[in-house]
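Sorry to interrupt, but I need a hand with the structure work. Can you supply me with one protein entry, sequence and fold together? No commentary is needed, just the two lines. Leave the record below and I will have a look.
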Amino acid sequence: MSASVPDGVQLHTALIQVIKGGEPDDDGMSLAGRRSPLRPPITGSCACAATALAFDLWEALERHDLYSSDTDIWIRAVEPDVPAAPLPEDAVLLETRTVVYGTD
């Protein structure tokens, strides 16, 4: 599959890490208490309002317990070419996804 990139758009890559335990660091955020973007908008603020991620990434992250109010699972975005900060104490890396996005 190929796609054309419009003139003036620059492509960037980020690694989205799903982490269990510890406290979110400067590159991380908890989505606890928010609503999944894949659920009906009955109550609660949508996690998609906290961070812009592609739909298929939200779909892949759905299997993790990111949204319950007492969850200890959080995400962080890191640059692929820059060494990531060490995980906080008692934290475990569950999954890493590569995301490509464009900016103008």
Summary: DSSP finds one helix and four strands in the chain. Residues 12 and 101 are 5 Å apart (CA to CA). The longest strand covers residues 92-103. The mean pLDDT is 81.
